[in-house]
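Sequence and structure are no longer studied apart. To make this concrete, we show below a single chain and its fold as tokens.
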Amino acid sequence: MSRTFALAFLYFASLPALALDGDAILRQVDRKLNPESYEMYRKLVNIEPDGRKKEFVLFTVKKGRDKMVALYIPNVGKPIRITSLQSVVGGVFNNADILNLDYSVEYGVEKATEEPKAYVLELKAKSGAVAYDRLKMRVDRASLTPTEIEAYAASGLLIKTLRFKDLKDFGGGLKRPATMETDSPLHKGYKSVMLYGSIKSRTLSDEVFTLDYLPRAGELR
């Protein structure tokens, strides 16, 4: 080894490791989970402690980082728009889980660490208007999609755990988990499952996301 090469090697070896950019990883997670503008069909299954199941179908359209309309499709009657942090369909999922806006819109990364096969992001809510004060997100390094999210209250109480499974190619370059399951220590014996049927890019006008358009929202399907 030449002296010049040896000096260069020692110099680079002594440089500090680059800090992990957790916010950049979180933005990539958002893009892996959802296209910029899309339509989506999902089935929500609520499982009760005695094994009984209730199933619902949801149709969602989204534009940009924070414009979304989600329609619950009942067996009879008109679709309704989901707007609150409660759950219109019951179960462990609340509407924050169902709406699933970009995480980087509502949370900032306080800490990011690396494991051999995962990134671990500790997130803090940017405001008090979101369902969870903190999230601990485990992200698969290969796919840059979450595998598990723990949701906490401001008190530190674990509210629920979301688990992402069944990586699937939905076409158009979108490869993401097709199943999301959740349970909660606050609802022992209950479980909810979200099954993603189809996701595809769609161009949408801003008018779609206004209250004036709400009576016509069913026409989007």
Q: What stands out?
A: The radius of gyration is 20 Å. The mean pLDDT is 83.
